[in-house]
Design the sequence.
């Protein structure tokens, strides 16, 4: 992963000339005053971890698996939000961990946590490093140092149960690795979020990830039927059966916990037969409201597509649903729906026929396979586009939320108005990419010219959008998580008593408070 951007540096590309011209004419974007820092120019604070602690950690994992070199520290600094990248592009690695520890087993994780609690060292569980909400930037005050606990060595497919259709996998597996291993058994998870190429299974669980095929396969937290968790107090084995009435489901304590309560060291996941057929297509609606009504009917009337997303007028016009075509002449009008169908031939044919009848009845126009196939080809390209926009002098970031269908128009308008109020005349695009019988998510992309202080610029916009989301009845996050960035809004969402419950869990499982301090837990 590129240390100051997204993904493979070889895939980074300069913006096409028409896009640069559009940014200048429409938004007033100008190139940054200073070039981005090189790796050798990064300002890295001295490591603070006592030598005795480093030696004790090395005794647990092996000396080669405790790293305090500059390369390891820089590459484990923060996540991949726009503020994270702006800081790294400015050469600011002030939040770097003091060391990176790579355990090789559950037992080693337990012992590392025990040692860190004893010496009051903060521990940040680290998977793919793809957090976009400040989930990898712990509070430092009061701690002897900070360790990034990289789970990359826990990368095995431990077993497959083809009768129950489950698989036991370790959390350090990146999603493509997991898919390759499962494909050897004719299986798939069906979980393909935009972070797919770099994110890990443990990160998916800890952040309640939702993949782009969620309409067919479900969210990642729906797939988790069991887990093993290491905490500073010991080990938890959770999930004896697919469903249980034996008290509250303790899986829910750790799903979405962002490493604040424990470290997931094994996952038992529901798997699916690898699809024999994949078919993607596009539909056009005159307005976002009309498309939204059609998606609601598909979600509520059964047999929905595997992939179902709707771009609003602005996103359709700009072509963001097809990033590989961005900047080509002749933008589309109306609102683009991408529908994807995966499964056995007969099932795919039935669902396509059902969806087509409903979409035509709702006013949709069939565009054929090209728009859907273009989206499928370019669905992991958008983060690279963000790097190119930042290099051109634009501030670009995303935010997402969800609500019930009845509240969705009000939420859509409120967030857009808040962003325009905070940023002047930005380009604000939106799409629906996750649908349920009762509601849906909204995913916004914002582009504006950078000011002299782009960090403060986005902080003001993010605060305004968060207030709008809370005020309009949405959740502060559908799938990005809480981290540090959403703490204030999350506290308002769950209330004082909800915050007390989370702090009670934290105090019981992590009495020294070493696990990802400053993340997730509201402070009143």
Sequence:
């Amino acid at each position: 992963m590129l240390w100051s951007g997204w993904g493979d540096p070889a895939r980074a590309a300069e913006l096409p000339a028409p896009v640069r011209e559009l940014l200048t004419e429409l938004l007033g974007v100008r190139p940054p005053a200073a070039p981005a820092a090189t790796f050798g120019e990064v300002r890295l604070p001295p490591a603070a971890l006592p030598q005795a602690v480093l030696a004790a950690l090395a005794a647990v994992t092996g000396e080669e698996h405790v790293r305090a070199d500059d390369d390891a520290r820089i590459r484990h600094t923060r996540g991949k939000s726009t503020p994270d990248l702006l800081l790294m592009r400015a050469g600011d690695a002030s939040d770097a961990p003091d060391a990176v520890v790579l355990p090789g087993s559950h037992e080693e994780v337990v012992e590392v946590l025990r040692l860190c609690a004893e010496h009051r060292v903060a521990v940040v569980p680290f998977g793919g490093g793809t957090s976009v909400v400040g989930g990898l930037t712990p509070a430092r005050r009061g701690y002897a140092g900070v360790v990034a606990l990289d789970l990359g060595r826990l990368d095995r497919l431990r077993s497959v149960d083809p009768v129950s259709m489950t698989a036991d996998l370790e959390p350090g597996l990146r999603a493509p690795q997991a898919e390759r291993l499962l494909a050897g058994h004719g299986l798939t998870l069906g979980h393909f979020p935009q972070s797919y190429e770099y994110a890990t299974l443990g990160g998916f669980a800890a952040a309640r990830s939702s993949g782009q095929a969620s309409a067919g396969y479900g969210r990642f937290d729906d797939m988790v039927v069991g887990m093993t968790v290491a905490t500073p107090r010991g080990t938890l084995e959770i999930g004896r059966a697919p469903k249980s009435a034996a008290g509250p489901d303790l899986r829910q304590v750790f799903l979405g916990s962002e490493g604040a309560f424990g470290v997931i060291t094994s996952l038992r996941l529901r798997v699916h037969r690898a699809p024999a057929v994949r078919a993607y297509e596009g539909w056009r609606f005159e307005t976002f409201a009309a498309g939204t009504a059609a998606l609601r009917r598909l979600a509520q009337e059964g047999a929905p597509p595997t992939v179902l997303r709707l771009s609003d007028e602005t996103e359709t016009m700009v072509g963001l649903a097809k990033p590989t075509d961005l900047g080509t002449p002749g933008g589309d009008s109306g609102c683009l729906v991408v529908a994807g169908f995966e499964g056995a031939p007969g099932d795919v044919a039935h669902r396509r026929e059902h969806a087509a009848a409903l979409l035509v009845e709702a006013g949709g126009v069939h565009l054929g396979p090209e728009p859907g196939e273009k989206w499928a080809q370019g669905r992991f390209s958008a983060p690279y586009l963000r790097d190119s926009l930042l290099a051109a002098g634009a501030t670009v970031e995303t935010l997402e939320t969800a609500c019930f269908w009845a509240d969705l128009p009000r939420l859509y308008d409120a967030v857009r108005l808040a962003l325009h109020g905070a940023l002047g005349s930005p380009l604000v695009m939106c799409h629906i990419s996750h649908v349920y019988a009762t509601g849906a998510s909204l995913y916004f992309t914002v582009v504006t010219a950078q000011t002299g202080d782009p960090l403060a610029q986005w902080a003001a916009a993010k605060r305004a959008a968060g207030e709008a989301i809370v005020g309009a009845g949405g959740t502060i996050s559908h799938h990005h998580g809480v981290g540090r960035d959403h703490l204030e809004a999350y506290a308002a969402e769950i209330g004082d008593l909800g915050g007390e419950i989370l702090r009670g869990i934290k105090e019981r499982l992590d009495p020294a408070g070493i696990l990802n301090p400053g993340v997730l837990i509201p402070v009143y």
